[in-house]
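Human: Cast an eye over this sequence-structure pair and say how the chain folds.
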Amino acid sequence: METLLEAGTAKPLVITNGGVKQNRIHLIYQRPDSTHVTIPESSWFSGKRSSITIYKPDKFVNDSDTVSLVCEVTSSDLRDVYIMWQENGGQYKEGDSTTTMTTSKSTPVLLSSLTVTGQQYNSKEIDCAVKEGNMENDIQPRTSTSPRASSAPTIRLVEFGQSVMCMIEDFYPKALTIKWKQNDREVRGLDWKTTEKESGLYRTVSVLEANLTSSSPGTKYTCEVTHGGKTYPAHLSSKAEFSLKISPPQAKELFINSNAVIKCVINGDNRREVEIVTVSWSVGGQTQTSGITHGGVTKTGLSFTKTSSLTITESVWFSGDEVNCSTSRNQITISDKVSVKKGGKRPSITIYKPDKFVHDSDMVSLVCEVSSSDQANVYVMWQINGGSFMEGNSTTTINNNSSSQIVLNSLTVTGKQYNSAKFACAVKDANMKNIYTPITSTTSESKVNCPICPVLERR
């Protein structure tokens, strides 16, 4: 048995059956010579032995059924606990999913599931093997049968893959019943075998195959446990999708109104939740109360969207102050931030245009190339005969390496426009000395034939 450890962490990543007599561990240290150090497994593992339980159905299983087994490992420290599965003592294999949780007594629990066919379950011995600090593999849990007074169950519902798991523990006597509900409709779950803990109390698990991904947001799942003549319900609701995303300003407002308009987009699949949410803004750590507008809720597909916008002057934006938008959901703050990327030198501008004769009936694509030695934000607009600024048809950013970039902005015009007008590419950037005057390049300044520009198209 060998264990591979991550560089510089001494934390095992993979456990494989090496088929050797002496178990060893390889430590890989983050050094230029990539030093490998091998130590005995016994030097790695130490600590108190964990408790292991396999939960399995206590009813008859047909060969055509699918069975999910759950291995529960309870330990004061799960960092040195590793779980694998075996069938008929064969090769170790990983489970389908692993979940970590904490019991009502704040004890860490590691759950590993393995799904097998009913035929495998009925014909093979399936073991959960645990390698831990005491260098021993447990197959079954240690139990105690000492009599106890009546103890009410503690119930916890957790999401487990696409299912809902109802964990019922610390109850006595053993007899109880479990009922599942999805909203107000009773549904059928699968109950695992009840097992006895070292303390003499009992535990069991029931699983509801709920397919949480496709469930409607807010669907309520109830695990109702009846024990000693009393009913103990536990609830879990499927979570609605919810996100907040901030977007940097577009070039149009910067050029036309000398303002930066930053948008904060709220998206979720619960209309009411998106509708009532409140967005807060700050710039440079200072709360903003003016220049804020809130839009209504719109529906796109199955989700709902609401946008909040903050307008600040371009001088504030180009100063580099961080802009933050935030909201609160279930008493948890959700936020996103954006700021202008400032570089060093001013970018250079080149307009690529055809160097051949252009007919009035042709279509011409002009390309403005903005090259910067720093990956600073640049904003590109076009002008025809010194008129109003207008946006190009498309923009592409190319990062040559870690510190330089090229921004390509294209504008498509008719041959008649091209032959009769003068075109200018105007750029505003984070390194401007005079933020109100963009740097420009006109079509008369470049005669270079662009290798990426489309060939002239004749109608």
Remarks:
- Residues 1-35, 41-46, 135-148, 445-459 have pLDDT under 50 and may be disordered.
